[in-house]
Write a structure and sequence with these properties.
Helix content is 36%, strand content 15%. The protein is of the alpha/beta class. Helix 1 crosses helix 6 and helix 8 runs parallel beside helix 9.
Length: 313
């Protein structure tokens, strides 16, 4: 199990206190539980960003709680504050699952993305670096459908993004809140590129994360599958780096509308690798949601599924 040095933990907490960045009530509204925010969490690895911490109804420091780390934190709780007026509704879904005893009470840590750096933060770095220099250059020149640059002239640095989560953020969360900090009670989740980085996190840090939820996993990496070397690079990485199925769980899902229309054949390839590497139906689950698109509304509808899978004993 990953154990940061006590001096590092206290140093980070002290630095946050000095900077006036200890948790405070979040301006975002939640329907259940409570939400705190550490504004502009500093990092030596990545651009500073807000961190939202959702505490379940009845949270008490006398108890200990599992923790789910989630990417795209600004999209999770309050649709009145998001760019597309959608949200994951994680507070409503999580609170209902806790109330019905489908899952134990747990904490959610919402890690905001840095919008201009989202692709470079979330694109799994080792698979990217396994591509030829010509392939990498071609990807760096890729445009979005609206003609803006996918990578915004930045280099892929998801290894640093994971170092930020594991070496800087997690120690502070474990110090400030009543967490169960071991691998069996530490999970990571996201959608689209957030699904990719969640899979990458559990592969790179198998002693830290015991489960990952990858919704609408963006296997193409960019916005086309034609002559695209990225999925095969991901699959080759999985062949080598998937964690031990005896101690890890990985959830996948996908729809078939909008961007999700690209995923069905690629997800089937990923599922075959999971099976080949010894993951059984109790250790991996893939669900298909026909008619569902690539949106927070769609992910909100099924967020209960990864929760019940990851937390099942």
């Amino acid at each position: 199990m990953f154990k940061p040095a006590i001096g590092l933990v206290m140093g980070l907490v002290f630095a946050l206190t000095i900077l006036g960045q200890t948790p405070a009530p979040s301006p975002a509204k939640v329907a259940a539980g409570s939400l705190q925010r550490i504004a502009d969490f500093p990092s030596k690895y990545v651009k500073s960003r807000n961190i939202d911490i959702w505490l379940p109804p009845g949270y008490s420091p006398k108890n200990k709680y599992p923790v789910l780390y989630m990417h795209d934190g600004q999209m999770l709780f309050d649709s009145t504050t998001t760019w597309n007026k959608q949200e994951w509704q994680v507070d409503e879904v999580a609170a209902k699952a806790i109330y019905t005893k489908a899952v134990p009470a747990f904490i959610i840590v919402g890690i905001w993305n840095a919008p201009m750096l989202r692709h470079t933060d979330y694109f799994p770095q080792k698979p990217f670096e396994s591509l030829t220099p010509a392939q990498q250059d071609s990807l760096y020149n890729t445009k979005r459908p609206g003609q803006s640059s996918v990578f915004n002239n930045e280099k892929v640095h998801s290894d640093d993004y994971l170092r930020f989560i594991v070496n800087e953020l997690k120690p502070v969360i474990d110090n400030l809140y009543a967490t169960r900090s071991d691998r069996a009670n530490t999970f990571i989740a996201g959608s689209s590129m957030g699904g990719l980085i969640s899979l990458y996190a559990i592969c790179e840090y198998p002693n830290v994360f015991g489960g990952a939820a990858c919704l609408s996993t963006h296997w193409p990496g960019v916005f086309s599958v034609e002559n695209n070397p990225i999925p095969n690079a991901f699959f080759q990485y999985m062949e080598k780096k998937l964690p031990d199925p005896a101690t890890h769980k990985i959830y996948f899902d996908y729809g078939d509308q909008t961007l999700d229309a690209l995923y069905p054949p690629l997800q089937k390839q990923a599922d075959e690798i999971m099976k080949k590497k010894g993951f059984t139906e109790t250790q991996t689950l893939t669900l298909f949601f026909p008619g569902e698109d690539h949106s927070e509304k769609a992910w909100a509808k099924r967020f209960d599924q990864p929760l019940s899978f990851l937390f099942a004993k």
